[in-house]
Prior knowledge:
- This protein is globular.
- The protein is α/β, with parallel strands linked by helices.
- It is built from seven helices and seven strands.
- Helix 3 links the parallel strand 3 (55-60) and strand 4 (120-122).
- Its cofactor is Mg(2+).
- This is ChbG/HpnK family deacetylase.
Amino acid sequence: MEVLFNADDFGLTKGVNDGIIEAFVNGVVGSATLMMNGPAVEDAVTAAKRHPGLKVGIHLVLTWGKALCPDLHSIVDKEGTFRWRSNFREMNIPDMKETEKEWRTQLEVFLSTGLPLHHIDSHHHIHGWEPLKELMLRLAEDYRVPVRFAESLQTDPDYLLTEALWTDFYGNGVTSSIFDQLRRIPAGKVEVMTHPAFADTELQAISSYSEPRNLEREILCSLEIPYWVTIL
C-alpha cells in the first residue's frame, strides 16, 4: 500500500508551520496544503523553500477567514469574510461564478510564490460538496493537478490524488496504530489527513482544534513503517 500523509492548514500559524516541517523532517508527512489566506503564509512559503522535498498543494478556503479577491459580493460579508462555515451543507449553495473567481485567485497567488503545485484540497472538505463538483474538475483540468479524494468525485478517478482518504487521524482517533487501521482499507493508494503543529497561542485563538495537534506531531514523528507500506 502507498500512503501519503498530508498536513492540512500550512500557513495558518507559525506553530502549525513548524509542526508540519518537524513532521516532514523527522516523521512520515510527505505533503502539506497551503491556506493562502492564513496569517502565516509567508513563513510557510519560506519554510517550504528551505525543504524542497516537501510536496505542497493548496488548501482552498471558502469557510474561514477573508477572501483574497477584492471584487466579491455574495460569498463574503461587508468585511470580506466568507459567509460559509464547516456546516456548509446546511447552508445555501454559493454563487458559482464568485466561488470560481475566488478560488482561481487563491491558486494564482499560490503559483506566484514559485512553489510547484502538487494537488488541490480544501478547508472543511468543501471541495467535496456535490454542487461544487464541476468547478473542482475544471480547476483540476486547468491547473493539471489531482484533487483530494471525495465521494462526490469518485466517479472521476483520473482526477483524484489517491483511491481513498483516511480522515479518522483526528481528535480521539489520533493513535500510533494508524497502520493497523489503514491495512483494512481496500485501496492501493491512500491519503491520511493530518494536522501536526506546535499549538501556539495564535492557533488557540483561531482554531477549536489546537492541543491535539501536538499529539499528532509527536505520533507522526515516531511511527514505525511496516514492510507493506510505501510512504509517499
